[in-house]
């Protein structure tokens, strides 16, 4: 919001405060000032001149030799190339020695043999942005009104003697999106009550609004308030200089004397208005409704817009003539030929205006105000003021009455707060009188009952609705810098991690110690990627308003993000990839709207975990490399229940012969396997292995107590056994038999050989295990070990039909 200091002076006495001081005070009270803009900074020797004669320069198709009266004894000869220069014009003249924006200096010069004593200036040359220069003079000089005094300083005529305070308005302070709102804010700072011009309407009693227009709405919740006035016999022309000056300093381009008034009122009241060419409506009815699906409208910018049922439109009873709260239609806008103007002042649902502006990528000054909310108390006041100005500037007559829908009069809210509560929260020792003076400065009417303030919140401050809002008002007006810095008085409690936090930190340390690097991926991805690698079937959760199509759907697995990261690294010649991530996945919640969140940990290996050196050859990772990392992680955590790996071929995105589900007892808690070669090919990855575990399941699992044992004093012994078994028999099956029959001294079983091929019968495989025995309390006898070892061999023969080699 660009606030003109000179405009603000129309409401308040600012003689004792500079713009810089005012900006500092506004910042201290909670509204950030982005910058102070001094449009006339560095400009000098700019005066009002009157063009007396204009002669075409011989030999030039565009240059003119002019004689200009600048208030000196003699006329100044100035060469001007502007196409719109003419006799008797009042113009802005930069005299020799003048300095223009960009440190451009004006000197006495000669053009094609003709002396030029200065320059007749366009607005662009004076530093105005192209976005605010009126279209009619985009390529020419700016013509001042006839009442401009020749020889006077031109800066004040153009508003270049002003200072603009650029405010960064937060969503909760939408009241400051208007000059009147800022005036109340500045008045609070200065302990002044702003004074506003009283508007009087002179209606034509012989002409009634009923003869021109009726208004209705489809739904009151979409359009809580709609009012319309008619001004007839207008002559649309150029706006007066004071009006153009205010609009340009606020960053708005002047259009014509009707549209400029609606923009001026929007800036003053914060109430967006729209002016229709009454005759172009071809109807005596205004009907506000939701748009039909795929309905079309051509807006003022000349673009055809395709609408949907979330868009609100103003219609002439049949076809749309405006996008409610956003932009008018080209079929009903005011032109130079307009003779009767219909002026709209309304309140539209913020959510619908926001959806329309966002879906059509059509933001406007109007939509930004509707989205934040309006002052319901000034809807008609703004309309009346605009009507009076349009009639005054354009010489029109105001038709008697207002076409409007039935509206419930808005009521001021009552919010209460006690002095004790204020001092307790702010840590202050304010008195009743001090707090009362703050509410008086805010112009909040109140009733005091003992130490309780019952505040009647004015309609212009619709952001205040609860006690906390009043606390903020007291704090910012009193001064944040005056509030003492105190620590809260409370019983201290020692901080500690809960079970989940401790386990999560351990997982981080373990995986990083195993050579994996942490990654953090977006929880939002594409619908296709979100469904990949999910540990259990679930529908995905989509955002209603995604930032992009690549971040639309909540993930069902962490692996998809790791694969993306691996592909990114592989594309940059990083072939050895070891990554992990701890984060949330989101499953469908059948009993509610919000998805179910589960914390998972996932890892990915590709290439090798080690580098080639003179003494070591790098070995590519395989399924068992990753399985070993996972097994050791689960073993180190101390899970009490048995962990099992069960082969599974149901995962479409994983290799059907190199994938297993991980079970904790009977509960599935994870998956491990190789990325399907087709998927790996899409991402240009070599053999890649992944796992994913539910952290929540690991936290809930019962853990073994940590037992510390002394180093054994007695030696152990070992036995090796080689088996010939069917190739369909898994390692887990063999381990189960050995551990069930190994006896009480069996400490460890290790697979050290696996062979299939020459000299081995087809359909079979040779596997070899080493069994370690230890009695921590005595030396083991050979007979004890041999007895237990024979039980193992017998069980393998009977249960697995194994051949002992």
TrEMBL record:
Its cofactor is Mg(2+). Mg(2+) binds at residues 463, 469, 472-473. Residues 712-805 form the FDX-ACB domain. Its EC number is 6.1.1.20. It comes from the Bacteria. GO terms for molecular function: phenylalanine-tRNA ligase activity. It is an enzyme of class 6 (ligase). Its main location: cytoplasm. InterPro entries: aa-tRNA-synth_II/BPL/LPL (IPR045864), B3/B4_tRNA-bd (IPR005146), DNA-bd_dom_put_sf (IPR009061), Fdx_antiC-bd (IPR005121), Fdx_antiC-bd_sf (IPR036690), NA-bd_OB-fold (IPR012340), Phe-tRNA-ligase_IIc_bsu (IPR045060), Phe-tRNA-ligase_IIc_bsu_bact (IPR004532). It catalyses: tRNA(Phe) + L-phenylalanine + ATP = L-phenylalanyl-tRNA(Phe) + AMP + diphosphate + H(+). It is found in: Cytoplasm. Pfam families: B3_4, B5, FDX-ACB, tRNA_bind, tRNA_synthFbeta. Residues 40-155 form the TRNA-binding domain. The keyword Lipoprotein does not apply. Residues 410-485 form the B5 domain. Coiled coil: none annotated. The keyword Aminoacyl-tRNA synthetase applies. Binds 2 magnesium ions per tetramer. Belongs to the phenylalanyl-tRNA synthetase beta subunit family. Type 1 subfamily. HAMAP family: Phe_tRNA_synth_beta1. Tetramer of two alpha and two beta subunits. This is Phenylalanine--tRNA ligase beta subunit. The lineage of its organism: Bacteria, Bacillati, Bacillota, Bacilli, Lactobacillales.
């Amino acid at each position: 919001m660009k606030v003109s200091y000179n405009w603000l002076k129309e409401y308040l006495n600012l003689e004792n405060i500079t713009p810089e001081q005012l900006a500092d005070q506004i910042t201290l009270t909670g509204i950030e000032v982005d910058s102070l803009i001094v449009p006339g900074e560095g400009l000098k020797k700019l005066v009002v001149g009157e063009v007396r004669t204009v002669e075409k320069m011989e030999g030039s198709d565009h240059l003119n030799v002019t004689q200009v009266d600048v208030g000196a004894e003699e006329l100044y000869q100035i060469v001007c190339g502007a196409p719109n220069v003419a006799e008797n014009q009042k113009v802005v003249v930069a005299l020799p020695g003048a300095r223009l924006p960009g440190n451009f200096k004006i000197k006495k010069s000669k053009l094609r043999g003709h002396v030029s004593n200065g320059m007749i200036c366009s607005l662009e040359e004076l530093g105005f942005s192209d976005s605010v220069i009126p279209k009619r003079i985009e390529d020419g000089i700016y013509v001042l009104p006839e009442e401009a005094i020749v020889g006077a300083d031109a800066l004040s005529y153009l508003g270049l003697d002003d200072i603009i305070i650029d405010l960064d308005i937060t969503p909760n302070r939408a009241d400051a999106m208007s000059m009147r709102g800022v005036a109340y804010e500045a008045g609070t700072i200065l302990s002044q009550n702003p004074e506003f011009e009283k508007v009087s309407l002179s209606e034509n009693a012989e002409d009634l609004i009923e003869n021109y227009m009726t208004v209705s709405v489809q739904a009151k919740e979409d359009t809580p308030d709609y009012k319309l006035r008619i001004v007839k016999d207008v002559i649309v022309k150029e706006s007066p200089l004071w009006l153009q000056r205010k609009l340009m300093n606020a960053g708005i381009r002047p259009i014509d004397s009707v549209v400029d008034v609606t923009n001026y009122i929007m800036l003053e009241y914060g109430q967006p208005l729209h002016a229709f060419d009454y005759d172009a409506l071809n109807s005596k009815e205004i009907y506000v409704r939701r748009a039909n699906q795929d309905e079309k409208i051509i807006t003022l910018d000349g673009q055809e817009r395709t609408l949907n049922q979330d868009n609100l439109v103003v219609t002439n009873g049949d076809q749309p003539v405006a996008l409610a709260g956003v932009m008018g239609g080209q079929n009903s806008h005011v032109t130079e030929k307009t003779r009767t103007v219909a002026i709209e002042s309304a309140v539209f649902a913020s959510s619908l205006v926001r959806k329309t502006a966002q879906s059509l990528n059509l933001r406007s000054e109007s939509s930004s105000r509707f989205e934040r909310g309006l002052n319901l108390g000034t809807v008609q006041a703004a309309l009346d003021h605009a009507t009076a100005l349009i009639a005054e500037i354009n010489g029109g007559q105001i038709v008697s009455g207002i076409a409007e829908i039935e509206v419930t009069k808005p009521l001021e809210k009552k919010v209460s707060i006690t002095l004790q509560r204020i001092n307790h929260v702010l840590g202050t020792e304010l008195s009743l009188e001090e707090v009362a003076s703050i509410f008086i400065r805010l112009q909040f009417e109140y009733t005091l009952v003992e130490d309780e303030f019952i505040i009647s919140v004015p309609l212009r401050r619709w952001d205040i609705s609860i006690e906390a809002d009043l606390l903020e008002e007291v704090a910012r007006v009193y001064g944040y810098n005056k509030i003492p810095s105190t620590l809260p008085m409370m019983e201290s409690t020692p901080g500690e991690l809960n079970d989940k936090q401790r386990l999560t930190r351990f997982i981080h340390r373990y995986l990083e110690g195993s050579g994996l690097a942490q990654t953090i991926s977006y929880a939002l991805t594409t619908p296709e990627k979100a469904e990949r690698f999910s540990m259990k079937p679930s529908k995905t959760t989509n955002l209603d308003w995604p930032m992009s199509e690549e971040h639309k759907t909540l993930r069902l697995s962490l692996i998809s993000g790791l694969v993306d990261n691996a592909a990114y690294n592989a594309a940059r010649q990083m072939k050895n990839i070891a990554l992990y991530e701890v984060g949330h996945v989101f499953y469908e919640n059948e009993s509610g709207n919000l998805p179910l969140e589960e914390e998972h940990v996932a890892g990915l290996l590709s290439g090798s975990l080690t580098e080639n050196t003179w003494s070591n050859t790098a070995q590519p990772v395989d399924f068992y490399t990753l399985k070993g990392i996972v097994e050791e992680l689960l073993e180190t955590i101390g899970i009490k229940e048995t962990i099992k790996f069960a082969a599974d071929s149901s995962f479409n995105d994983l290799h059907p012969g190199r994938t297993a589900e991980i079970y904790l007892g009977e509960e599935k808690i994870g998956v491990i396997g190789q990325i399907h070669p087709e998927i790996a090919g899409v991402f240009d990855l070599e053999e890649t292995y992944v796992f994913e575990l539910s952290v929540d399941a690991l936290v809930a699992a019962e853990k073994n107590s940590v037992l510390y044992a002394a180093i054994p004093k007695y030696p152990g012994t070992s036995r090796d056994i080689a088996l010939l078994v069917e190739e369909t028999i898994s390692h887990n099956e063999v381990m189960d038999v050995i551990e069930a029959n190994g006896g009480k001294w069996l400490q460890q079983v290790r697979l050290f050989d696996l062979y299939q091929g020459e000299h081995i019968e087809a359909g079979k495989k040779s596997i070899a295990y080493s069994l370690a025995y230890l009695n921590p309390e005595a030396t083991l006898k050979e007979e004890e070990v041999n007895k237990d070892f024979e039980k193992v061999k017998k069980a393998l023969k009977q249960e697995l039909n194994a051949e002992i080699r």
